[in-house]
Design a protein that fits this description.
By secondary structure, this protein is mostly helical. 72% of the residues lie in helices and 0% in strands. Helix 2 crosses helix 3, helix 2 crosses helix 7 and helix 6 crosses helix 7. The protein has a domain of 115 residues.
Length: 179
């Protein structure tokens, strides 16, 4: 009888030990990353900033550049300055974050926009850094960052590259078609 009681105690102990979190086998959940970006993500993070820059660059080339004595700020700089000016609205339209985080978005614009403002003022060397290098980085960012839920700062860096490239393209397009 004592054997049965000790067996029952042993089986109860093993049953309670089996339910402890240390000994339960981990459940593996397969992580599925999306294979492609949705059209909404593509529109918000790639197309809209580029079209914003294209419009800002073309309007800057048409309306402001003819009145500037030294040609500065040039259209890509104008697009970046306009982006900084409209950063609260762009943050609200282009990010899923609360409106109170627009200063983080502005910080991301400034982190890339201010160096680009300087690069574009260097003359023809700006095409290498501000144009070509930014296009290469923007393509890389556009093909890799869409997989992640980014904070406003990094989204602003991505959008700033798009506005920069769009403003350059818009000013060149306006200049070649209208002048």
């Amino acid at each position: 009888m004592e054997e049965r009681a000790s067996e029952a105690t042993t089986s109860e102990a093993t049953a309670s030990e089996a339910t402890t979190p240390e000994e339960t086998p981990p459940i593996e959940v397969p992580l599925q990353q999306p294979l492609t970006a949705t059209w909404a993500e593509t529109w918000v993070n790639v197309m809209f900033p580029t079209l914003f820059g294209l419009t800002a660059g073309a309007l800057w080339q048409a309306l402001i550049s003819p009145h500037l004595t030294y040609g500065l700020p040039n259209p890509p700089q104008g697009g970046l300055l306009i982006m900084m000016l409209f950063s609260p609205l762009l943050h609200r339209w282009l990010t899923p974050h609360p409106p109170s985080m627009w200063l983080d978005y502005l910080g991301g614009i400034a982190a890339l926009g201010l160096p680009l403002l300087f690069v574009w003022s260097t003359g023809m060397g700006g095409f290498v850094c501000g144009g070509y290098l930014t296009v290469v980085l923007w393509i890389w960012v556009s093909t890799s960052w869409w997989r992640f839920h980014l904070p406003p700062f990094r989204l602003a860096i991505w959008h700033t590259m798009g506005v920069n490239i769009g403003a350059l393209g818009g000013s060149l397009l306006y200049h070649s078609l209208m002048m």
